[in-house]
Amino acid sequence: MNGNSKPVIAKIKKIIISFINDCILIDINREIQNHTIEIRRKHGIKLPDAIIAGTCEYLNVPLLTADKEIGRLNELQVLIYEI
Questions:
Q1: Rg of the Cα trace of the chain?
Q2: In angstroms, how far is the first alpha carbon of the chain from the final one?
């Protein structure tokens, strides 16, 4: 890497740290478990994806993903982004 990339890396690191600091941690409660089970049963998706989807459904927030397979979950508002 050249010397010019250090400020860019520092700026990206600052953005990532800011984003992480804005995140909240949510425990998986019984309602999230129930949403997760139903989504997994209905769509057959992997457990980690089902947990994320179940949590989004519980919190009534959109799910932001690059995974187009998740876009078929009609019980959620899914926002697909291209990488």
A1: 17
A2: 23
Question: Who's near 80: CB < 8 A, 6+ residues apart?
Answer: 65, 66, 67, 68, 70, 71
**Alpha-carbon torsion, ordered 38, 78, 20, 12, to 10 deg:** 150
Domain of residue 35: give its range: 5-80
Q: Name the average pLDDT for the chain.
A: 90
Above 60 in pLDDT, residue 49?
Answer: yes
pTM of the predicted model as reported, rounded to 2 decimal places: 0.74
Q: Which amino acid is present at 54?
A: G
Distance CA 63, CA 18 (A): 20
